[in-house]
Amino acid sequence: MEIAVLLRERKPALQRRGSIPATMNSRSDQSNEDLWVFGYGSLMWRPGFDFLERRNARLVGAHRALCVYSFVHRGTPQKPGLVFGLDRGGNCLGIAYRIAPAKRSATIEYLRAREQVTRVYLETWRRVWLDDDPQESVHALCYVVDRGHSQYAGRLSLAKQLHYARQGHGRSGACRDYVLATVKELRTLGIRDVDLRVLAEQLKGSHRPPAS
């Protein structure tokens, strides 16, 4: 990857305590360009925005992990759930969406409202390869977990993942349903993740705990 690209991708991390738009101006203001968005969790099965094209894609340098405590969408501060983040290292297979220039600003605004409720993610641009073709790549907007945020859970044991996935329930519904829907989509796409499949099998037989 070119040095200039690396520098652009590091910039949001350096500015993460500033306003979100400050990390995006270099690309979001170019409204005559298509917008690409990389989805690796619920965006794969519930994007929530209009798009022109949907492609399988691979991001190198980060991996999908249940590493974010959810205080809003799939849990509360009192009973956190657990949601996916892009964490450092490895690679991630997901979905790249192409959005028309006319809907670029509205899509970014929607994603910020959805993903940045507590600022646990860093809004950044990463190169993704479409359909695993080394000759075809795009720069896509994606949300990488902020390891310095209080909601960063790190690498949790299967038992702890199961605990939070069972107890979490928030604005967007049960954490259990979120995990199962994501694993189902991964299976549909032919993406293998043994640990997530084990977690899903245990969740399928579980029931949501009664509200206290």
Description of the structure:
With 212 residues, the protein is α+β, with helices and mostly antiparallel strands. It has a domain at 3-72 and 80-153: Hypothetical upf0131 protein ytfp (Roll). It is 32% helix and 31% strand. The chain contains 7 helices and 7 strands; from the N terminus they run ααβαββαββαββαα. It has helices at 3-14, 25-28, 42-45, 104-115, 158-167, 175-188, 194-204, and strands spanning 35-39, 53-70, 81-99, 121-130, 137-145, 169-170, 173-174. A 5-stranded antiparallel β-sheet has the order 1-3-2-4-5, sandwiched between helices. Strands 6-7 form a two-stranded antiparallel ribbon. Helix 5 packs across helix 7 (194-204) and helix 6 (175-188) crosses helix 7 (194-204). The protein is globular and about 45 Å long. The model is unreliable at 1-26 (pLDDT under 50).
Can you describe this structure in just a few lines?
The chain is α+β, with helices and mostly antiparallel strands. Helices cover about 30% and strands about 30% of the residues.
CATH superfamily of one domain: Gamma-glutamyl cyclotransferase-like
Q: Trace the largest sheet across and list its strands.
A: 1-3-2-4-5
Unreliable sequence segments:
1-26
Radius of gyration: 17 Å
Structural class: alpha+beta
Number of strands: 7
Q: Judging by the overall fold, what is the CATH architecture of one domain?
A: Roll
The gross shape turns out to be globular
- How would a textbook summarize the main sheet? 5 strands, antiparallel
